[in-house]
Prior knowledge:
mainly beta; three-stranded antiparallel beta sheet; two-stranded antiparallel ribbon
Amino acid sequence: xxxxxxxxxxxxxxxxxxxxxxxxxxxxxxxxxxxxxxxxxxxxxxxxxxxxxxxxxxxxxxxxxxxxxxxxxxxxxxxxxxx
Length: 83
């Protein structure tokens, strides 16, 4: 377990390592972080430790800037169904 973010009142912990178990192309579209059309990838990752608290986690990432949900803009969010 490692600390991902620390503020004077908040500490956010996350997995110490991350393993990609699935990676496939997801099409080209506008990245609001790069501000260009980029190829996006559907990636599923998990914490490889035996006490995996985080389970498999899907994400859509820009192949250039690696931002998660960079294709969601203007207040939109991506919601995933339970596995």
